[in-house]
Amino acid sequence: MDAKLLDILVCPLCKSPLIYHKAEKELICKADRLAFRIDDGIPVMLADEARKLTPEEAEKL
Question: What span is annotated as the signal peptide, if there is one (predicted)?
Fold first, then answer.
């Protein structure tokens, strides 16, 4: 992921900053407990396609 792109991307729902998880290829919103996938270097910022974090995953953030 491009560092400049990461600086400007925010959660589409709450506008909170996102955390980049390189190994999982996801951008994480702590506030909404959602993970947005990254396909071929392109973030999929659609709330309907976001994965809900488990309580255990959210606790680790």
Answer: none
Q: How far apart are CA 3 and CA 55, in angstroms?
A: 28
Neighbours of 60 (CB within 10 A): 7
Q: Whole-model pTM?
A: 0.90
Q: Are 11 and 34 in contact (CB under 8 A)?
A: yes
CATH of 3-60, one of 3.40.30.10, 2.60.260.20, 2.20.25.10, 1.10.3210.10: 2.20.25.10
